[in-house]
Amino acid sequence: MTTTAPAPNAPDDTPVLTATGVTMRFGGLTAVRAVDLTVNPGQIVGLIGPNGAGKTTFFNCLTGLYVPTEGTVTYRGTDLPPKPHLVTQAGIARTFQNIRLFANMTVLENVLVGRHTRTKEGLFSALLRGPAFRRAEKASEERAMELLHFTGLAPKRDHLARNLPYGEQRKLEIARALASDPGLLLLDEPTAGMNPHETRTTEQLVFAIRDQGTAVLVIEHDMRFIFNLCDHVAVLVQGEKLLEGTPRTVQSDERVIAAYLGTPFEGAPGTEEAAEVEAAEAHAAEDTDR
Amino acid sequence: MNPKNPPTGKTAGITAIPRIPLPPAAARITVIAGAALTLASTFLAWTWTQAFPGNLTVTGYPGGLQLLTLTGAILTIAHTLATTGTPGLRWLSPTRSNTATRHLALGTLATTWYTLIAIAVQLGGIVNLEPGGYLAGATSLITTLGALALPSGRPTPPPPPKPLPSWAEILIIAAAFGLGLSVLTYGIGTAYGELFTGFLLLTGFTTAALAKAGLITRLSRLTATHRRVTVTAAFAAAALFPLTQDTDEYTLIVVNILIFSTVALGLNVVVGLAGLLDLGYVAFLGVGAYTAALVSGSTASTLHIHFPFWAAALTGAAASLVFGVLIGAPTLRLRGDYLAIVTLGFGEIFRIAVGNLNGESGPSVTNGPNGIPNIPNLSILGYNFGDTHTLGGLTLNPFANYYLLMLLVTLLVVLVFSRAGNSRIGRAWIAIREDETAATAMGINGFRVKLIAFALGATLAGLAGTVQAHVSTTVVPEQYVFAGPVPPNSAFLLAAVILGGMGTITGPLLGAALLYLIPAKLQFLQDYQLLAFGAALILLMRFRPEGIIPNRRQQLEFHEPPATGGPIPLTKAEA
Ligand SMILES: Nc1ncnc2c1ncn2[C@@H]1O[C@H](COP(=O)(O)OP(=O)(O)OP(=O)(O)O)[C@@H](O)[C@H]1O
Ligand SMILES: [Mg+2]
């Protein structure tokens, strides 16, 4: 049942992301224990698990915000140093579960900050304002506006990030992450707190991102979202990877249901599984609003 | 409010009930009549003896503090008429806000009563007041009561300003700067403490009233569209200042204000843009000043060399830069409070080390506590700053020379601040200030970017220090303390930035001017200065945490873009 085989539709390139044996201990607590995960080019991979399973901690290990106690993270075949700015430089961008925008900067400026790694002008060119500086600023702004159009935030370019409604703040986080032209985008609960309509547009957005050639690794408690979207799903329970596989295999695995509901349903007939997943979903949705 | 449409306060209104029950029209008449009588009272004698400064004994001609009351009364009348839509005055109050009228009435009341109380206290009792004084006191009180009776409630939103031809807008900007400069010049030139206190009271309330009346918003819209003109007008106005002075006295004050505000603006890069709390910033000024003193050819300098000014300025700035990097590299890995403590420590280490490099406790470099005196005057291309020059009929005394040089340095620092703030690196600073974790996750190398901010701040302070050494002709370690009675010191610099408005250009300049002038003018505050200063900061944090000049971002916070106009454009580096 524990499928470690590559997803069926993965092209046989080098994987975008390979995490091997990632372990994170906080004192006595092991939040993530020996997790392996591979994301192949063009894939949307889901990471699910009950609250406190260690999903966000795993993301933090991937992006260098935490230095993993053990294990390595590789991006397109090269090992990543555990420094957030170097990880972003290499091509992994992320969003945060509890939105972390630059609240007092405008929407456009937030995205421009995302361009930081892909631009070079330093202090001196800023002070001298030569033609090269102006050109680079103009190009950054054009790219940022492109992303704002892509995420539907263009009309709000001069608003302060803090004044955006919740759903748009999440979209702005995505736009800001995309500004670094990442090869892999990590989304931590991108639809938390969104209404069904916004969730739907976010789904479209993630597909569009994938179609532009960026692989996506997404944490989400909304099972319908995950199963619609992902080519491959991994389940994390109490810091350990319980199983991974196609949405279909994961969806029908009893251990997943047990992990979410707490007690295994002895001898439940297959037809009721869908209902249980529904229940798990509702439960999870409540919990995300913490 | 328009009389044809009196209950505007109510229709717009959350709290339309006036504090004093009086129909709006009656209240308005009370205000106008009261202010008119106050105005008349300034032409009477308020006291019988000239022992109180400013000669308030003359009937038929207002003098001294009476002029301030007179100004307050005129403004109150004009604004009240403006709120009723009187043709020709309407521009005075785009928002038609009664709160602005109240502020003006309160300003007049405060100035008048302050004068009366000061007379009574100084001359020993209220018997020293003449009937004119009683009249002024009573009528200003009536005016205020009338103003309090005006309906409150939210002012109606300002109608979109009529589009003016751009030459007219530029003229308005120039007029506003001219007015601002003359108010400031008047404040600097106030001959005695009482007049300065009255001036502060009146300008404080009037500024609040201008903001409530919507004039400041209008002006900032204009300056945002004509940035270049604004900057030019500001510096032209500033450059004209020494020409309005016949003595050295005030030019010296203004040179020192300029040094103080330039250093405060440099600190604003570190504190306002990058969000790094630096409590030892004055040390960088010291490094610049000491370096310039050492290479100035002063007889007391241990290095017997004499650099031309450009070389001395570069050396001073470079020395500060090196010092900044040396201090920044180990400390900038710390966050928040730790950084503040460590920079505080380094600031003190600088002062104490300089005090000990006297050949006894350490190598002989700085003459220890005696410092380096006899720093010669600057001479650039044969133009000696110590002489009085006449250029095309204009007389420039030594301090005016230094003032103009310092103004160039200020202009440079303003340019650096605005350009750096509005660029990739400036955005990275602001991002770090807003959320360091998110910023590093966006690919910003936090340490590197913070070090650049720290080093840039240090360099700017060092540059200002090289001029300061020549202006003060002596450098001693005790000029560069953490907190002391004479600005600039680290505490006052930080206070200037916070008081003025973090992340803005005009904020620290204005904050520094106020923090320099208030202690210099109010001698009686001398003993309680730090106490008063602390109290003022607490009040400020309570009532106006964004500082006198709010950052445009903070303005945006409360001011969502109207459907038509779009938000006030974020001007360069108003980060
Ligand atoms: N910095 C930290 N120090 C100590 N413990 C931590 C730290 N960060 C996370 N933990 C612990 O690690 C465990 C996993 O937390 P994590 O936030 O990764 O869960 P999650 O799967 O993202 O949950 P959720 O679905 O609620 O977001 C939790 O028990 C949490 O308390
Ligand atoms: Mg989480």
Labels describing this entry:
heterodimer, A: 290 residues, alpha/beta, six-stranded mixed sheet, four-stranded antiparallel sheet, 11 helices, globular, disordered N terminus, B: 575 residues, mainly alpha, two-stranded antiparallel sheet, two-stranded antiparallel ribbon, 21 helices, 4 strands, disordered C terminus, binds adenosine-5'-triphosphate, binds magnesium ion
Structure, briefly:
By secondary structure, chain A is of the alpha/beta class. Chain A is built from eleven helices and ten strands.
Describe the fold and architecture:
- By secondary structure, chain A is an alpha/beta fold.
- Chain A contains eleven helices and ten strands.
- Chain A has a six-stranded mixed β-sheet, with helices on both faces. A four-stranded antiparallel β-sheet of chain A has the order 2-1-4-5, with helices on one face.
- The longest helix of chain A is centred in the middle third of the chain and has 21 residues, at 131-151.
- Chain A is globular.
- Residues 1-11 of chain A have low confidence and may be disordered.
- Chain B contains 21 helices and four strands.
- In chain B, α10 (248-273) packs across α18.
- In chain B, strands 1-2 form a two-stranded antiparallel ribbon. A two-stranded antiparallel ribbon of chain B has the order 3-4.
- The A-B interface holds A 63, 65, 84-85, 88-89, 93-94, 96, 100-106, 109, 112-117, 119, 121-123, 126-127, 129, 133, 136-137, 140, 158-160, 162-163, 176-177, 180 and B 415-416, 419-420, 422-428, 430-431, 434-435, 437-446, 452, 456, 553-554, 556-557, 560-561, 566-567, 569-570.
- Bound molecules: adenosine-5'-triphosphate and magnesium ion.
- Residues 55-56, 97 of chain A line the site of magnesium ion.
Tell me the number of helical segments of chain B per DSSP (H or I, 4 or more residues long): 21
Rough shape of chain B? globular
SSE arrangement of chain A, N to C: EEEHEEHEHHHHEHEHEEHHH
Q: Tell me, briefly, the overall form of chain A.
A: globular
